[in-house]
Every structure is written in C-alpha cells, then in structure tokens.
Amino acid sequence: MRKEISYQSFVRFAFITLFFVFITVDSNLLMAQDSAVAQPVPVAKKKSYVKNTFDGNYIIDNQSVMVPIKGTFEFDIQHRFGTMDHSFKDLFGLFASANMLLGFSYVPVKDLQLGFGATNDRMQINGNLKYAIMRQTTNNSIPVSVTLFANTVMDTRAKSSSLPIVNTSDRFSYFTQLIFARKINNKFSVQVAPSLSYFNNLEGYLVDSKTVANKLEHAHFAIAFSGKYQLTESMSFIVNYDQPLTQHPMDNPNPNISFGLDMKTSGHDFQFFVGNYGSLLPQNNNLYNHNDFTKGQFLIGFNISRLWNF
Known about the structure:
The protein is mainly beta. Helices cover 14% and strands 44% of the residues.
C-alpha cells in the first residue's frame, strides 16, 4: 500500500511540476513576444538646419549662400554712385555718373532660385540661377552650406567702333561661383566663394579701329571672402574682400574691399555701404575693376530688396 501511495504521489507531483514548468515557459515566451512587439522601431531623426546664415541674397557686391524659401518673389534695386576721391567737386561721387540695376527673382521649387535683371552699365541684361547644394545642420553633421550661383549676361548696345561685334555670341559673358559658408554662432557668419568669369569678346580694347589689343585673358578666376556680424536683431555689419587670381598680360584688375550695414525687416532688406566696385554684375567687377582703395577710390552704394511669398 505504501508503494502504491508513493507511486501515485510521485506521478501527481511530477504532473503538477511539468504543468507549472509548461505554464511558466509559455508565459515567458508570450511576454518575450509582447516585449518584442512593444519595442519601438528606431526612427531616423529629421535633420535640423541652421537659419539666417546671412540676412538676404546679397552681401554688398556678392551673392550670399542663402536661397529664399519656395514661393518667394524678390524685387531688387541696386545703385552705385561715382568714386569719392574728387571730394566736393562732385559731392563725393553723388553728382557723378552712377550705375543702377533692377532685378527680379523667384523660387519655383525648394532650393532653386531663378532671376532676371537689367542695368544701364553697357545696357546689359542678365539671367541667373542659384541652387542650394547642401545646408549646414544644427548638429554639425553637415558643417557648411554650399550654394552654386551662375549667370549669363548679354550686352545689348548697338554695334559701333568701340564695340567690335562680329557674331551674336560676342555680346555674351558668363559667371559661375561656388559659395561655401558657415554660421559660427548666432552673431557671426563667414563665407568664401571662388569664381570664374568668362567673356566671349573682350570689348573696349580696340586699336586703330581694327585690332583688339591682347591685354586680357578671356577667362578670369577670383575669390571672395565675406562676413556678417549681428549688431541687433534687425541690423548687421557686413564686409567683403574680393581678390583677383588670374594674371593678365596687361590691365590687371584691382582687388575690392567693401563694408557697410544690413538692415532687415520681415519683407525688406536694405544695405548701405562703401567699396571699390562700381559695376553691378560680378564678371564686370572681377575683370574690369580699376578703382584702387589705396588711392581712396571708394564709392557709396546701396541695395534694396523687397520680398513677397506666394
């Protein structure tokens, strides 16, 4: 009898033990499955980009790295007076001949701006584009912003002895620039921009009304350095330095230094400055600038931009 009871007790104990082992294992499996389901799937963090590296499209005579948001329409007025080195004879250049440009631009898609402009300087018209290749991120995974700017300019003046045009292509010049910029902190931003200017026809260097003098190369390389320091919420100090790189047989252009103030509102950007560049198109400034800042040949200029968003 004892053996039977012991045997039955053993079987009962074994059965109960196996039952609880099964329940425990099954519960752990279910919990593991639930935990696996409940685990959140890693989601890639959305990149956050720095804002307001510069306040507008222009830094005095140069393009900034900025491209406005999609749907932005911009109207620009740019003006350059004569040089100030004649003092009161022409009221520091205010009564001298001046250059003016009217320009329009629009951002049809994200990061791409298209523009058009016209200037009384050589009666030139231009079409341009600006494309933001990459933008600096707040976590510095992308440490700089990079933008491409390019234009095509046409001289619309009538053919004359001083404008030796043979083919229509002689009227065209081109400018390409790659802009690298970094916002150092909330107040200070810098950029550097190497560029290439190219003229199909080096007009203005005529000898005996027949032969174009060999004074300049058709292609000209230059580099521009620019900076902004935020003075107040709506006003910044801006500065440029433009250095020609190509050495020409004669008539090498002079470098440019310019500095001024940038005042911004929600829909306007106004810049007032002094500098050496007298033209309003970058290839003209880079190749033909003969204003020498060591001789005090500065001039007063301003840029006005009005922006609308559609």
